[in-house]
Write a structure and sequence with these properties.
32% helix, 19 strands, binds iron/sulfur cluster, 17 helices, Ubiquitin-like (UB roll)
């Protein structure tokens, strides 16, 4: 292991354009500037059907350990922990072979439940500490990074920026698989890589079935944060829920929400002691009851995990999650800050009993038939990419190349302003820049 200063590590991580690969897209160099006691590598991959993190832990275990060590060097952490599902036997075996003998990095085996990868839950499982409401892992002395992010940190130190992404292709594809593709590979091309669609009218979802987003443009490219592409029939429960418009949901909740509390009973953030009661928020909007300030601003405490919507309220098909997302956006627009910052003194005594197992999730949302063993086919080359410039946390990246310019793989092509939170992008294939917009740069090889 080569020793580097924290400043050197932060600099290469920033230059490599690394953002949280788990979905949040938060720039990693910012996290690595903190001083903490522990680095947790999040390998829990809690969304059903996804197998990208697991695949990479099997094939690149050494690189993950190197990434954790670099993150520990950057932050001064004395302990590294890799949180991984207990039943990922292949990944656990691969990691056990490469863990350092001094015990500085160890595995923490997790049960197979949803959302084990929510960093608030993961930190609680590993350390027994609860991150305060509205807080971040740093408040309890921890930095959490996705396992692929940490592998990218190790690659960055060897000079490779983020130019590819390992993605699970599952659902209604003829040849479901796990594949590594250049960042910006179009969804249309991914359908080809998966042998086409079994159901030509299938709807695509970028991400997992619980938190993913419907893909509305097949010519758009996958982001650094894309962990999976799922295809479901257009009348599938997951698609119907994801495509229901918010006004319809609000209208429906007025007549359909029976205040059964199930959404609050199963809400993972409520279970770790945060003051988040989705049923009360539903009551607030439906009947103008409860305390609007309190129950609407609690939108800031919601992780958008979807348990309330797809598991708790599957019978009424209401979505406290969507309502929280809309409120949060509105509150932020109005400049209302999160007033919730209570330190949690007690975790709900039912925390263990109310964990929703992944087999239950799959049964509830009717995806068990898509849970098949997926082969990893390695890196696939493509002739065209559309590299998205906004799918990370912070300011959009601004193009630094010109139309028709020839670029080589790994060349810097866009960057967020240096004084703002953001990241940079590199050419994921060599070729000519054929289109530039505010949202993406297209390169044809
Ligand atoms: S689970 Fe559904 S019906 Fe029950 S309180 Fe929550 S939103 Fe209302
Ligand atoms: S999406 Fe629903 S269950 Fe998940 S944290 Fe938010 S309110 Fe709780």
């Amino acid at each position: 292991m080569i020793e580097r200063t924290p400043e050197q590590i932060v600099k290469v991580v920033r230059r490599a354009g690394i953002v949280g690969a788990g979905g949040g897209g938060f720039p990693t160099y910012v996290k690595l500037q903190a001083e903490v006691e522990m680095i947790i590598a999040n390998g829990s991959e809690c969304e059903p059907l996804l197998a990208s993190d697991r695949t990479m832990m099997v094939t690149n275990a050494g690189q993950l350990v190197a990434g954790v060590q670099l993150a520990m060097q950057a932050t001064g952490a004395k302990q590294g922990v890799i949180g991984i599902k207990e039943h990922y036997h292949d990944a656990v075996a691969a990691l056990n072979k490469v863990l350092p003998e001094d015990g500085s990095i160890k595995l923490h085996l997790l049960e197979n439940y949803y959302p084990a990868g929510d960093e608030f839950l993961l930190v609680y499982e590993v350390t027994g500490k609860v991150i305060p409401e509205g807080g971040i892992p740093l408040h309890v002395g921890v930095v959490v990074n996705n396992v692929i992010t940490l592998m990218q940190v190790a690659e960055a130190v060897s000079g490779k920026p983020v130019i590819e992404r390992t993605i699970t292709l599952a659902g209604e594809f003829k040849e479901p698989k796990v594949v590594t593709v250049p960042v910006g590979t179009t969804y249309a091309e991914l359908i080809n890589i998966a042998g086409g669609l079994k159901d030509p009218e299938a709807v695509l979802i970028d991400g997992g079935p619980m938190m993913g987003q419907i893909v509305d443009d097949l010519n758009a490219g996958v982001a650094k944060t894309t962990s999976g592409l799922l295809a479901f029939p257009k009348d599938h429960f997951v698609v119907r829920m994801a495509s229901k418009p918010l006004p319809q949901m609000v209208k429906q909740s007025k007549s359909a929400c029976c205040q059964c509390f199930r959404c609050s009973d199963l809400c993972p953030r409520n279970l770790i002691g945060h003051e988040l009661f989705p049923h009360r928020t539903m009551r607030t909007i439906d009947y103008n009851q409860a305390d609007p300030t309190k129950h609407i601003t609690s939108a800031y405490l919601c992780s958008q995990c979807g348990v309330c919507e797809l598991i708790a309220c599957d019978f009424m098909m209401l979505s406290p999650r969507k309502i929280f997302a809309a409120y949060r956006q509105e509150l932020m627009k109005k400049g209302v800050k999160n007033p919730h910052n209570r330190k949690v003194s007690e975790v709900n005594s039912q925390f263990e009993n109310r964990k929703v197992s992944i087999p239950t999730v799959m049964k509830k949302i009717d995806i068990a038939k898509y849970d098949v063993k997926l082969n990893y086919v390695g890196r696939q080359e493509v002739k065209k990419v559309r590299i998205p410039l906004r799918r990370h946390a912070g300011a959009p990246a601004l193009p630094s190349v010109a139309l028709w310019q020839q670029v080589r793989m790994c060349d810097l092509i866009a960057q967020s302003p240096q004084d703002k939170l953001g990241t940079c992008y590199h050419a994921s294939i060599g070729g000519k820049v054929t289109e530039i917009s505010e949202d993406y740069i297209e390169i044809q090889g």
